[in-house]
Specification:
Layout: H1 3-21, E1 29-33, H2 39-47, E2 52-55, H3 58-65, E3 73-76, H4 85-91, E4 94-98, H5 101-113, E5 118-124, H6 137-148, E6 153-160, H7 172-189, E7 195-197, H8 204-209, E8 214-217, H9 219-222
Parallel strand pairs: 1-2, 1-8, 2-3, 3-4, 4-5, 5-6, 6-7
Helix pairs in contact: 4-5, 6-7
């Protein structure tokens, strides 16, 4: 794995997608997804200038973060069980996978106990896939004001994992729907939501063209994931 070359390639692709969309490259945050990657790989990525990392499981993050440079910023990307909320509040700068009002309330309770304010993204299951977590758009709009009223959470925007497609153009409508949903949320809240987290290795350029401010990249940086130890 040539991490430096991979990073340069991803950065060039981000810049090209931003240019097509008339956006500044600095408007997109690259989140390095380090699921199953050891701390040494995180440290190597940090040495190349990456500073925002994403993990999918609290237990793995708990073991890994303490072995990595303290200046790094960590986002929770995967499904969060309510019994892991206390650890998530402690470990992560942002939880991107708030997929229900119930989970938001549990995070708020744990953040209150820790005397912290927690930035969150609300996860949307845009097309209702049974295999994915997230609120359906109509449910999100129904719950939005109640989540926004939770004093320890700050809603910073929306996150989605679109259906997998060989051709990224097939998911462009999902990304566009997310941008429009964010605009509806902003109207309801009467405040801007700065972030749309959408786009991964196979489709991040299309996501950027449709308004993504965060892209979550694993494979294009680190190659195929190593198998987790049994």
């Amino acid at each position: 794995m040539d991490l430096e070359a991979n990073l340069k390639s991803v950065q060039q692709r981000i810049e090209a997608a931003c240019a097509r969309a008339g956006r500044e490259p600095g408007s997109v945050t690259l989140i390095a997804v380090t699921k199953t990657q050891p701390p040494e790989v995180v440290c190597a990525a940090a040495a190349l200038g990456l500073s925002v990392f994403g993990e999918n499981k609290v237990q793995e993050a708990k073991a890994k973060i303490s072995a990595c440079p303290g200046r790094l910023r960590w986002h929770m990307l995967g499904h969060l069980q309510s019994n892991k909320c206390r650890d998530a509040v402690e470990l992560f700068e942002m939880v991107q996978s708030v997929d229900s009002l119930y989970l938001a309330e549990e995070l708020n309770k744990r953040a209150d106990q820790a005397a912290k304010t927690l930035p969150v993204l609300l996860e949307v299951n845009a097309v209702g896939e049974a295999s994915k977590f997230g609120s359906r758009p109509d449910q999100l709009l129904a719950d939005l004001s109640r989540i926004n009223a939770l004093p320890r959470l700050e809603i910073h925007g929306l996150m989605t994992v679109p259906p997998w497609a060989l051709d990224p153009e097939k998911v462009r409508p999902v990304f566009r729907q997310m941008r429009e949903l964010k605009e509806r949320c902003e109207q309801i809240l009467g405040a801007p939501l700065p972030h749309l987290s959408m786009g991964m290795t196979g489709d991040f350029e299309v996501a950027i063209e449709e308004g993504a401010t965060m892209v979550r990249i694993g494979t294009a940086l680190f190659g195929s994931r190593p198998k987790a130890a049994a």
